[in-house]
């Protein structure tokens, strides 16, 4: 890719496609999110932003998958602070595109700050390739339960 254009929606799409082509077996997930374990004894994971079905935020999925070495299939993956930091750093140039909001970047920065300030909190990423796929974890089920008209089976 000769020059990366982070300043336009078309440029971000081209970057997404370029990076996705480098992931063997890549298939864009229909939904994904980064979760943060609770600060209390509650078993529920927190998701500052969930990319729901029919969403448009494909570049963050590709960047997160690249950092984690994932192909986009349905899975729940542990995420280290250094991995999320690398994902934030990799996605940050997208802020040059002021035509779009960047909710993943904001959510990832928030989760990263929380995990850095409290080492007892852990991070994970949930990818859902198809809503008919079996739920991969309790966090996956909790995320899918937020989708309108969808009741996942745990």
Question: What's this, in brief?
Answer:
The chain is of the alpha+beta class and 154 residues long. The protein is built from 5 helices and 4 strands. The model has no long low-confidence stretch (mean pLDDT 91).
Element layout with pairings:
Elements: H1 9-20, E1 31-36, E2 50-51, H2 58-68, E3 75-79, H3 81-91, H4 103-117, E4 123-128, H5 138-144
Antiparallel strand pairs: 1-2, 1-4, 3-4
Helix pairs in contact: 1-2, 2-3, 3-4
Mean pLDDT over all positions? 91
Q: Give the distance, in angstroms, between the N- and C-terminal Cα atoms.
A: 43 Å
Strands ordered across the widest β-sheet? 2-1-4-3
DSSP strand content: 5-15%
Characterise this structure:
The chain is α+β, with helices and mostly antiparallel strands. It has a single domain, classed as Alpha-Beta Plaits. It has five helices and four strands. It has helices at 9-20, 58-68, 81-91, 103-117, 138-144, and strands spanning 31-36, 50-51, 75-79, 123-128. The model has no long low-confidence stretch (mean pLDDT 91).
